[in-house]
Specification:
The protein is an alpha+beta fold. A 7-stranded mixed β-sheet has the order 2-3-4-8-7-6-5, sandwiched between helices. Strands 13-12-11-10-14 form a 5-stranded antiparallel β-sheet. A hairpin with a 2-residue loop joins β10 and β11. The longest helix has 18 residues. The chain has 5 helices and 14 strands. The protein is about 20% helix and about 30% strand. The two termini are about 30 Å apart. α3 packs antiparallel against α4. Biotin binds next to α2, β4, β7 and β8.
Length: about 280
Amino acid sequence: MVDTPQIVKSNGLSNEAIRANMAGSPASELRIEVEPEIDSTNAALKRRAVSEDIHGLALFAEAQTAGRGRLGRPWVSPPKSNIYMSLGWRTDLEPLELAGLSLAVGCAIAEGLEGDLALDLKLKWPNDLYLGGKKCGGVLIDLVQSANQDWIIVVGVGLNVAMSESGGTDIDQPWTDLGSHTNIPVVRNELAGRLLEALVPLLSSWQVGAFSQWQSCWARRDLMAGHQISVQQGGHAISGRAEGVDVSGALQVATRDGLVVVQSGEASMLRSQEL
Ligand code: BTN
């Protein structure tokens, strides 16, 4: 935590200001829309995908009234203090061929954002962003089929940038924001530009097995590696020591019965009295 967080929150998000921060990069080809308020940027893009081409459309909202997180959880989305963004991307791949994409998105965001802001972002499997041991962001990937049956990936990103205590009261776990961890002013339009610049090269080059290129990035930022964890899978829990992720992004857990590879689920780190 820094003593004097430098947070610039007065400027609203705008298409022009976001664009000004990514001149000349492939991300400048995107269409960008900013809504003052929406239910959920992911839900909105999924609705629109039925009747329009959302490939390359980045939808930002200043506030969400029904923001969604993984596993159907709410994503608390107070106005004008954070980033809520969804990007639509057409793919020729089948859903099963996208294994590891959501982890790679977390890696790309961490690498894309932290340089300018001198942050040390960690990743918690499968796609949470952490600072100082607390969650500051998350990724929600949805898939939708367009009218002509193409698969469209909707990459939803929520980043706490300058969340007030009152804005975060409904969050049910320890949380933080980027502004509390840097002495460099955090300008949301700049952050939005960096975010899109990080995502476009990843999405445009994604192919089967591509997570192998991100495995070492994940390992450097892996919040849980070496810790005792519990993973909820359906009705049962798998407990053991987190051993990083494999080449497809699956979580490896060293249990009493040997190494277990977990494709999906909800992982938590155990405190010593829970061991
Ligand atoms: C998680 O950590 O559970 C994922 C959170 C993803 C939140 C973002 S905010 C923008 C987009 N719209 C949503 O409703 N959810 C994602």
